[in-house]
User: Fold these one by one.
Assistant:
Number 1:
Amino acid sequence: MTRIVRIIEKTISLASGMRNADINFNTMTASAVVMVSDVIRNGQPLIGVAFDSIGRYGHGALLHERFIPRALAAQPEQYAHSSKPGIDPVRFWSLLMANEKAGGHGERAGAVGLLDAAAWDLQAKIEDKPLWALLAEEFPGASSPSRTPVYASGGHYRSEDGIDALQREVTGYRQLGFERFKIKAGGLPIDQDLKRIDAVIQTIGDPRRLALDFNAGLTGTNAHEWLNAVKGYDLAWVEEPVEPLDYELLANLCASYPGAIGTGENLFSYADTRNLLRHGGMRPNQDLLNVDISLSYGLVEYTRILELMAQNGWQRSACIPHAGHLLSAHAAAGFGLGGHETAPNHPIFGQYPDDCRIENGFLQLGERPGTGLEHTSGLHAIFNALIP
C-alpha cells in the first residue's frame, strides 16, 4: 500500500502593485505543498504538489495545526485505493474532514483543497498519466479532455498605468494566442471605467469576447446603475458584481440584466453553491458558475458541485472556475467545463509547462504525469526548494 510519509508547506508572498475593485495584493500570500509518498520511481520518491489559488491568503496555520498531522497519522489502508495501486483521493478527503463540524466554509476549505489537490497530483503520477486523463476516466463527459477554452484575465488597476498601458496589455494577450479577455471594473467612477472598457473593445474588436470582473465591489446603491451602464455592450459576462452571500440583490440583478452574470468565486462548498442555486436567481441557460476549486475543498467537493448543478438543469459548459493555474486547467479539460481562466502577466500563475500550448483561444495540455505545476517557470524554484 502507498503511504504518505511527509507533507511540507511553505507560505509564499504574492505581493504586487495590483488591485481590483475590492482589494490590493500587497500583503497577499499563498501556500505551496509537497506530499511525499513511499513509492520510489527512477530512484526518487513520487510526490504530489499543490499551490494555492490567488486572492485569499496562505493556509499554513490550519495545515500545520490540524490537517497535515491528521493525514500523517492515518494508516495507508485508510486511504488506499480499492481497485488499483495508489491512494483514493475521495477516501483521503473523507479522512481529512473527519471530526469537522458542518458549516464554517472558508479558510478550512482552502486548507483541505490544497491537500486534496496534492493527493490527486500524486495519484496521477502513480498511474503515470496527466491529471486531465485521470479525471476524464473517473468522471466521463468531456469530448476533448486534453483541451479547453482559455481566456486571459488582467486589466488590474495600477497607479502608474493608464488606458494606453491597458491596451498594450490586451494586445500582448492576443499575440499569445488568447481570443477572450477579462478586465477589472468598478474600481473607478463609472465614466472613467467606461473609457477603459471602450478602449479594450476597440483593441479586440468584439465586446462579446470581453468579460468584466467587479470582484464583489458593487452594492445595493450602485449595482443597478453599473449594470445599466454596461448592458448595451453585449459583453461575454459580468462577474461577481456584488457580495456573494447577498442572494436577494444578486437575484434582482439577474432579473433585470439581459446578459450573463457569473459568480461563485467566493463561495467555498457544495452547501454554498446549493444556496446560490436556490436563492440567487441565476439562470441555468445563461449565467456562469465561477467556483474556485482549490479554495472550495478541492476536486472531490467540486465533483459533488457538478452533480448538484446537473440535478438543477445546469450544463458543465456553464462552469468556468476561478483561478488561473494548472489545477483548474486540468479540471476544465478533464471534466469538459466551459473554460479556464489564466493571468498571463502574473509571474507565478500565468505560466504553463513547456508541453502545453495556447492556440486560437484554446489551451492544449500536455502528457506529463500529474498537473505539471512544478514544471512551470514561476513555480519550479519554489517546489525545488521544498522537494526532499
Number 2:
Amino acid sequence: MFIYSSLSIHIQRLNLQKNKGKSLISFALKALFANKLKTILIYLSLIFSIISIFLISSISNGIITMYSSMLKSDGDIIITQANISDTFFSNVNIDLIEKINKIQNVLESSALIVGASPVEKLPIVAVYGASSNRFKNYKLESGTYAQKNEVIVGKSIYEQLSNKKEIQIANRTFKISGVFKSEIGFENGGVVLTIGDAGEIFNKSASMIMVNTTLNSDVERIIKDIKALDEQLDAKSTQNFVDNYNQFKIIKTSSNVISFIAFSMGLLGIVSLMSITINQRKSEFGIKRALGISTSKIVYSIMTESFILGLTSFISAFVISHIVLFSIKNISSLQGYVNGEISNELAFYIFITSIFMAIFGSIIPALNAAKTDPVELIQGNKI
C-alpha cells in the first residue's frame, strides 16, 4: 500500500511539473467533467434556484411597473379617500374636480374608477370608469370612444371575446364602440367605460382623482390646498403614492421572501452535493497535499470549479427565464396581466447572487477537505 501510494505521488508530481503551464480553469474544467453526474446535479440545482429568483422578481417587478406606469401617465398628484387600505375601496366625490381645477398651478384633473368583473368565459377582467378628458390616454385602433352604455376594450380582451359587438358587465349589457391598444398590460387587458356607468355598477363616484400641475409648480403646496377642501381626502405626489402603495409593499415583501427561500434551498443543495463530491475526491486532495500544494490553493481550485458552475448556470437560467417570460406574456388567457421583464439591475443582482451561492456553497466542504491530514485522505477515510 505504501509503495503504491509513493508511486502515485511520484507520478502526480511528474504530471504536475508537466502541466505547470496550464491554467487553473483548465484543471477546474477537467475536474468537473471527471465527476459528470455530481456536476450535472449541482448545475441543475443552481439553475432551478436562479430561474425561480428570476421569474419571481421579474414578474412582481413587472406588475408594479405596469400599475405605476398607468398611474404616472395621469398626473402629478393622486387623490384618494383617506384611511382606506386599497384604491378599490376608495370613494372620492367627483364634483371636487371643479374646485381642484381652481387651485393655482393646477392644469387639469381627471377621475378614474378601478374595478373588476368576470366577462364571458374570463373569470376576472379589469374595469375602468374614466372621465371624458381621460379617454385620450387610450389609443384607438378602431371605432370611437365610449358614450353612455358603451365601452372600449383592450386588444388582448377583444381577441378573446366570442361576441365582438356587445359585452356584459355586472348584468348590464354594453355596446363595444371601439378597440384600443396599450403597452400597459392592465389596460390592454381591460375594459373602459364612462365614469357615470362605472359609478352605477360599483356604487361610487370615483376611486381616485389625478391632477396635472404646471411645470416647476410647488406640488406640496397644491397638496395642502387639496386636503383643505375635504378632511376625508388623502393627496400624495404620484411618486410618493407609488412608493407607499400597500399592495406594492405586499408584492415586494412576498417576492423577497420567496426568493430568499429559493436561494436557501439552492444553497443547501449545493453544500450537500459539494460535500458528497469532495468526499469522493479525498484521495486526489490527499495526493495534492502530499505533493506540497498549500491548503489555500486547493480551496481556490475548488472555488474556481464553483465559479464556473455558477457562471454557466446563470447564463443558462438567464436564457431560459427570458423564454419563459416571453411565453407567459403571450398566453392569451392571462390577458397581459402577467408581464415580467428582466432589467439590467435585476440581472446584475442575480448574477452576483448566483456566483455567491455557488462559491459560498463550496467553501465549507473545500476547507474541510483541505485541512484534513493527507495520510487519512489517501487511505480513504471520510472527510
Number 3:
Amino acid sequence: MSNFNKKLIFKKFLIDNTHFFLLTTLSLSLIVWVIQAVNFLDFVSEDGHGLRIYFIYTLLNFPKIFAKLMPIMFFISLYYTINKYDEKNELKIFCINGISKINFLNTLIRYTFIFFILQILLNIFVIPYSQHKARSFIKTSNIDFFPSLIKEKKFIDTVDKLIIYIEERVNDSQYKNIFIKNDLGIDQSKVIYAKKGNLIENDGQRSLRLFDGKLINVSENKITIFNFKETNFDLNNFFTKSITHRKIQERNSFEIIKCVYVFHIKKVSYNNFEIDCNKDSINEITQESYKRIIKPLYFFVIICGVSFLLIGFRENFKYKYNKLFVFFLGLFILIFSEISINFSGKNNLQSLSAIIIPNIFFLILYFSLRKKLSFAENK
C-alpha cells in the first residue's frame, strides 16, 4: 500500500477522534460553565453588578474549565474511537493494508503533541490572563445594579468604603429611612441619614436623591452636622471590595518559573509587584508551576495507556478483559497525575519526583506496548 493511502487512513482516524474530542469537551465544558455561572450569579449580584458584568466574568472562566477537562476527555475520545474502529473491523483493514500497529502507535504519539502544546498554551498564557482579567473586571467595575444590592433592614457592606442600611423598600427606586456611611480616608467619613430617597438614573449615571435628613462630616476630632431638605448621593464611583489581591493562579507564568528556579537553585528569596517569592509561598508557587508545565506531559502517558487497546482484536476471548484493564489504567493515570502535582513542592525530592515520574511512566508503557504489539504481529 502506498504511503499516500496510509496517510489518508491515519488522517481519517485522527479527524474522527478530533471531532469527537472537540464535540464532547466543548459540550461538557459548556454544561460545567452553566452550573458555575448559576453559582457565580449570587456572588456577582450581591456585589451590586448587573448581567453584563456577570456574563463577561463567567465567560472569562471558560478557558479554565476547558483545560481542566482536556486530559480526561482526551482519554475518553481515544478509548471510544479505537473501540468504534475495532467494532467496524477497521483496525483489521489497517493491518491488511500493511499498516503495522507499532507504526499506528507512533502516529498517535505524534498526534498527541497537538494536545500537549494546546494545554501548555492554555496553562501558561490563556488561563492566568483570563483569570486575572475576570477578577480585575469585577474589582474595577462600577456598581451598576443597585436594586439587587439593597436588602431591607440589613447593613450592606460589600461595596468598598460604603455601608448602606435601608429600613423599608417601597419599590426598586423608592426607599424609606436610609442610613449611609461613606469612608473618605484616614479618620475621615461622611454619614447621611434621610427619611426617604429615590434612585435616579440619567444617561447611565446613578444617584440617590435623599430628602429630609442629616449630613454628618467626621474629620479627625471634628464633627460637623448639616440638616438638608434634599441632596444627591452619587453611586457611580464605588467598587466591590470582594477581590483585593491576585491569586497564584493569575500570576505571570514566567515570574512563577523564575521564582521556582531562583529559590530552589540559587537559594534566594525576593518580593516584587508580581510575586512574593519566599519560604511561605514557595510550596504553592512550585505546585502551580508544575501544574502548568509538568502535568501536560501526562498526555503522552495517557496515549500509551489507551493504546493497549491495539493488542488483539475483539474476537479474542481476552479482549473484554483488556478493555477493562485499559479503562482502569486510564483512570489510574488521570488520578495519579492530580495527586503527584498536589504533592510537588513540599520538598526537593517530591518536586524532582513529579518531574521524573511522567517520563518514566511513558517509557515503561511505550516499550511494554511495543514489545506486546511486536509479539502479536509476529504470531
Number 4:
Amino acid sequence: MSQYFSSDFTLGILGGGQLGKMLLSETQKWDIKTHVLDPSNEAPSRFGCHLFTQGSLMDYDTVVNFGKDLDMVTIEIEGVNTDALETLEKMGVTTYPKAQTLRCIQDKGLQKTFYKNHQIPTSDFDLYDSKSALLSAYGNGGVRFPRVWKSTMGGYDGNGVKVIRNDADLEGLPEGPCLMEDLVPFSMELAVIVARSPSGAVASYPVVEMEFHPEANQVEYVICPARISQELALKAQNIAQTVTAALDHVGLLAVELFVTPENDILVNEVAPRPHNSGHYSIEASNTNQFEMHLRAIMDLPLGNTNSKVGGVMVNLVGSEGHQGPVVYKNMEAILAMPGVTPHIYGKSTTRPFRKMGHVTIVDPDIDEARRVAETVKKTIQVISK
C-alpha cells in the first residue's frame, strides 16, 4: 500500500466545484496533498488544496500537463477529456474512474446501450445521431408519445432533458446526438451509492428516496433511509452493485433508479463520483461518501456505510427572480432548529435554481426529519442583493 498520509503522494482532482470542496475536507483530515484543476478562478475548491490550476477540463494538453507529475487523478465532474485520462494512464498515473468507464458514462447513448447489452433493467429507448434524424423518424411514424428526449452529451441537473408529449414539444430541441426513452410511470425515484476498490471490495450505502422539484427537474429532498420495504431495498442495492461490477468501476458510483407501480426497478442514470444523493452522509453516516471515495480509490479498507441516525438533505438553490451577489436570508432561523446543519458551497453569485448549498436534518424519526426539512426549505431563501 502506498504511503498516502503526511507524505509526498499527491492526488489530483479534475473539477473544483462543491463536490471537490467537500472531498478536500477529507484529504485535509488525512493530510493528503492535493492539486485541483478547474476552469473558474472562483471555484469553491481553490482554497482547500495545495495547488489550484485554472484551466479547461476538456482541453487535452491542459489535463495531461496537470496530471502528468501526480500520483493519482480522480474527478468530481464527468465533463473531462477522456483522451487525456487515457494518456495519463499510459504514462503510469493512476486514474479513477478509468477513461474507458468514463466514456461509457459521459455518453448517455453508450450508457443506455451498455445496460441493454448487460441485461440491466432500464427503460426502452432509441438513439438518433442528429436532430434531423429524430425529426425524420417522427415524420415516418417512428416516434410515439409520451417519451423523454435527452441529449447524449453534457446534460446535468435537469439540463439536456425534455418530456415530449406532443408535436409541439419537438420544436426548439437543440442540434446534436440524442436519445428518446419511454416516459416511465414511476411511483418513486431511488438512488444507491456503491463504493468499489481496485481489489474488488464493495460496500453499498442504504437506499435513499429522492423527491424532485416539479419545474427544475432537480432533486429537492433526499431521504435516508428510503421509506420502502426491505425486500425492495435489497433489490435496489443488488442492481446497483451489478451495474458497478459490469462497468468495472473503482470509486463511488451513484445509481439512480425508477420504481414502477408494480415494484419493478429500472436504472435511470449513473454518476461515477460523490453525488448529491449522498450529502446526507456527512452528518448521518458512520463513513461519509467523500471519505469513502478516498478509501475506495486508494484501495484502503472500505468504511461502515450504515447510518447513525435518519437523515434528510434539502438542496439550497437560487430563488426564481434573483441573479447576482448571493444573500442567504433567514440563516439564523434554521440554525436555531435542532438537528439542522447547513453547508454553503462558496459560490459568490446566485441565479435561479443554481445549487448554492444544502442543509442536512438528522433525527431518529425519519418522518420528523422530513417535516423539519420542509420547514427549512420554506424558511431559508437564496436571493441576490
